[in-house]
Design a protein that fits this description.
389 residues, alpha/beta, TIM Barrel, eight-stranded parallel sheet, 12 strands
């Protein structure tokens, strides 16, 4: 196994081993990709405050997210098509998360189904759902999650309509991939990936095909998808979803303080400050720049998590120090999955944990829950001064 020192090491291997359309699906944003880029670059503006001559023995990253114990406050974010990055990808990622002691969030747009993941794990995982128009499908989805003993539901609210991702259109992204001269030529160079896909029966959207009305096979999926998302979504509709699910509820996709207040009012247990990894509204603020205003608005009333842009343990430390109770990694673990399967996901978690633990020590902090803005050097005007009329 090559020596892995950071997440970029996994990314380089991932790029070599996974077909181009799935690499581009992961490593791209919408439109000009401004928000996608700034999600990571804005973290670089924040510096860490070094402290010395303090007792740094007995450090711990253990914490809780929505009252559930975690070995570090880092969850695996929901990522659609994970099972196309590596055969049975959702199962492998969930198993790695379980062994490491962090939450795994299964996307509704996963290749492996809720039942597939439940059958191959021993601890509860979280399920992410979209705000779809079909009440029957939504209720059955929540019921399936309950039967699988899912310990939280994550409602994504920033995908009422799909932001344009140029690379996905140009690549003809689909699951399974459409067989064209270009895609076949590319897949022929990804032998390990291809052998894995030949060895699994899971190549379609397992939570949708055979479960949604009119979707008996993958050929009818595109029509269903085009009609399923609710562009008329409002907070009353989200309250209806709250009634369908009586367990812990997390609302994902909050970037504005006013929306954070609305999420608080519908009975959510936590919110995730997220811009969908820069794949929806291009030109939106990065998640880390959006966090302070949201913390000021609701941070003392609801648990606030942060997603989008985290590529290191130092990024985790910065988000936690600015008030987030938990964080999510998406691309960082997908790099590991595509590079090395379950072992790669584990390696991505090990890298981030070591970076977080070591950086805590160098900042003079022994318990992850003691992190605060006192551990950061935040540039003046970091959030920006924006005019709204």
């Amino acid at each position: 196994m090559p020596v892995i020192t950071n997440i970029d090491d996994l990314k380089r291997i991932y790029q070599r081993r996974v077909p181009r359309m799935f690499y581009d699906y992961c490593e791209s944003g919408s439109w000009t990709e401004q928000t996608f880029r700034e999600n990571t670059s804005d973290f670089d503006q924040i510096r860490l405050r070094q402290r010395v001559a303090l007792d740094m023995t007995g450090r711990s990253t253990a914490s809780q997210m929505i009252d559930q114990d975690v070995s570090m406050p880092v969850a695996l974010a929901p990522v659609g098509l994970t099972g196309m990055q590596h055969a049975d990808g959702e199962i492998k990622a969930a198993k790695a998360a379980e062994k490491f002691g962090v939450p795994y969030t299964l996307s509704t747009m996963s290749i492996c189904s809720i039942e597939d993941v439940a059958e191959n794990t021993t601890k509860p995982f979280w399920l992410q759902v979209y705000t779809l128009k079909d009440d029957d499908f939504m209720q059955r989805l929540f019921d399936r999650a309950k039967d699988a003993k899912c310990s939280a539901a994550v409602i994504t609210v920033d995908l009422q309509l799909l932001g344009q991702r140029h690379k996905d259109l140009k690549n003809g992204l689909s699951a399974p991939p459409k067989l064209t001269v270009k895609s076949i030529a590319d897949m022929m160079t990804k032998v390990q990936w291809g052998l894995g896909m030949l060895g699994t029966k899971r190549r379609f959207f397992g939570n949708i095909v055979g479960h949604a009305k009119g979707v008996k096979d993958p050929s009818s999926l595109s029509t269903w998808t085009a009609e399923a998302f609710d562009q008329a979504l409002d907070w009353d509709r989200i309250r209806e979803f709250r009634k369908m699910w009586d367990g812990p509820l997390i609302i994902k996709g909050i970037l504005d303080a006013e929306d954070a207040k609305q999420a608080l009012n519908v009975g959510a247990d936590a919110i995730i400050v997220s811009n969908h990894g820069g794949r929806q509204l291009d030109g939106a603020l990065s998640s880390i720049k959006s966090l302070p205003a949201i913390m000021d608005a609701v941070g003392d009333k609801i648990e606030v998590h942060l997603d989008s842009g985290i590529r290191s343990g130092q990024d985790v430390l910065k988000a936690l120090s600015m008030g987030a109770k938990g964080t999510y990694i998406g691309r960082a673990y997908i790099y590991g999955l595509g590079a090395m399967g379950e072992a790669g996901v584990t390696k991505s978690l090990e890298v981030i944990h070591k970076e977080l633990d070591t950086s805590m020590g160098l900042c003079g902090v022994r318990q992850v829950g003691d992190l605060s803005e006192n551990n950061l050097l935040i540039p003046e005007g970091f959030e920006g001064k924006w005019q709204t009329r």
